[in-house]
Amino acid sequence: MSSSLALPARGGSRLAVLVVGLCWLVVLFDGLDMFIYGSVLPHMLETKALGIDPGKAGDVGSYATFGMLIGALSSGTVSDWVGRKKTIIASTAVFSLASAVCAAAGSLGVFSLGRFLAGLGLGGLLPSAITLVSEYAPRGRGALIVGSLMTAHQAGGIVAGFVALWTGDWRVSFWICVIPLFIGVPLAAKYLPESMAFLQAKGRDAEALALADRYGVEPTARDGERPAAADRFGAVAALFRGGLWIQTLLFWLASFGGLLLVYGVSQWLPSLMKANGYNLGSSIGFVIVINLGGIVGMLVGGRLTDRFGGPRIAAIWFGATAVGVYTLSVRMPLPLTYTVVFLTGLFLFSAQAMIYATVAARSSDDNRATAVGWTSGMGRFGAVFGPWLGGQLLATGSTTAGFTAFAAAGLFSLVFVSLTGLRRVQPPATSGTRQELTVTG
Hints:
- The chain is mainly α.
- It contains 16 helices and 2 strands.
């Protein structure tokens, strides 16, 4: 069982609110940057901006998610090395600057480079933010806190839809995505606290004590030897020790299908719906509605996960997502379509978030960032494949095939996340006295 910092109610609540609030802001910007490409894509395809077509659009989406794969795989090790705070700040700066590259691009090649660089930052931010808020989460609220954080991602998707509708110009939309460089980065640099567990693991006890004193909390008592700071790659090997390898692989496979769904549907929903006969305004509106559903799903899913266990809730959520996505292949009256899109979003995004929450809860303090980062990183192979697959299927002119393929990914993840609930292995104990999270499987 994993643990997080034991915080007295008053000071701990204030500190937790600060951490979650600042992380929520930067994850909002992460969601804006991630969803903006899918939101402006129908207009780019319609005007053939930079010579883009459905096949090339899928390739560009995959470049971005390949960058996310690298960023996510690196973030856990980097975060355990230099700290959660620095990783979050650097990641936000990278994807903000990359948006400027996209906005100023004079060719599809430069635009693709910009999306790849954005992916590096986007992939690095989320695991680090999840790790940090998990470490400051109050007792028994780990998944709810992660779900609350992930509402920011969907809020960013809503903002992306409105930005695309408001500007009507893809370049302007990408220039707006540079704003985090001037808001999120300075605020995080000034106010975001570092993880106390990280500071203590690095022997920076004076900084940990100063942070604890500032917010009126008690630092975690640690007994025994500190983990070797230089053994950064040992944290990855620890994911496979003591029978943990089965659980690790199951979470990776479930994350593959989950992120294939998230990124495939996020990029291609407006274009698939437009190809299915809906007008451009409605198609972009679906991005807003599916993310509204995602916000509700994060809060509901997080609360249920804390109560009933991550694998159980995630499995139900993935099954419901598969049904919802497949139903969208059927042309329905617009109000009914909006309802189905909302319900699909409710299950789609929070299913993947509950995988992260469960991995964070089952990991030790010394290894949590690596565990979440590698689960996210291995899942990014699905995130690379999803946008490419959507482009290939849309290029054939078959919207039904696209929806069917994404629904199948939901069933794929349902199977593997269900198996993680059957295979429950205790992670190696870490030194120190810590509070347990109650997310169980």
